[in-house]
Specification:
Elements: H1 2-53, H2 59-67, H3 73-98, H4 106-109, H5 126-148, H6 156-175, H7 181-191, H8 193-197, H9 199-218
Length: about 230
């Protein structure tokens, strides 16, 4: 139960801080600020709840860890449930906060949801979005499995968080950056419309990328020699 609570709180924090930076302060901090909000939220949670649950706060990460042989299927599914509930709670609180100013509309202003195509940020194609999310999630999970499998993990949280910052710097214009199905599910449920109809990509693509990384570590193709 401690692990589930930790994953709930961690994912809640990631969505509230990351998407919150985009919705509440995007005009002031810009895309670089949003990138750091996601990354630093992850750093904070890595050190805050990492000792309890490992701070996955991402179903794709849990899948990668499972396929790498470091987590049971039962635990992975429990993590998924906690992560999705945490993301929904974070998005719900963010919508309450955003609604505190006159003129805000979730339909018009959004909730930090992911997307692609006409009318969405850089208006990249679905293929570009799919490739971006698969590749970036793969690289993200490679970093996570690599640094958490090392003998010295003192700086693991920092390395993981900074990797998320870089991914956002590169890809906010492409998809808004998911690499995390729970992060996408939370805002999409409240935003509805295109966010909900496009949600499948932000579930499928990150899971594919994470699965590839997990399998490569399971095969010891990316693991350090013993």
């Amino acid at each position: 139960m401690k692990k589930m609570i930790a994953e709930f709180v961690g994912t809640f924090t990631l969505v509230l801080f990351g998407c919150g930076a985009a919705v509440l302060a995007g005009g002031e901090v810009g895309q670089l600020g949003i990138a750091f909000a996601f990354g630093l939220a992850l750093v904070a949670m890595a050190y805050g709840i990492g000792p309890v649950s490992g701070c996955h706060i991402n179903p794709a990460v849990s899948l990668g860890v499972h396929l790498a042989g470091r987590m049971s299927m039962k635990d992975m599914l429990s993590y998924w449930a906690a992560q999705i509930l945490g993301a929904l709670a974070g998005a719900g609180v963010l919508m309450v906060l955003a609604s505190g100013v006159d003129g805000y509309s979730v339909a018009a202003n959004g909730l930090g949801q992911n997307g692609w195509g006409e009318g969405y940020l850089g208006e990249y194609s679905m293929m570009a979005a799919l490739v971006f999310e698969i590749v970036m999630t793969f690289l993200f999970v490679v970093v996570i499995l690599g640094v958490t499998g090392a003998s010295d993990t003192a700086f693991a949280g920092l390395a993981i968080g900074l990797t998320l910052v870089v991914i956002h710097i590169v890809g906010i214009q492409v998809t808004g950056v998911s690499v995390n199905p729970a992060r996408s599910i939370g805002p999409a449920v409240f935003a509805g419309g295109a966010a909900l109809s496009q949600l499948w990509l932000f579930i499928v693509a990150p899971l594919i990328g994470a699965a590839i990384a997990g399998i490569l570590f399971k095969m010891k193709l990316l693991s350090a020699d013993d």
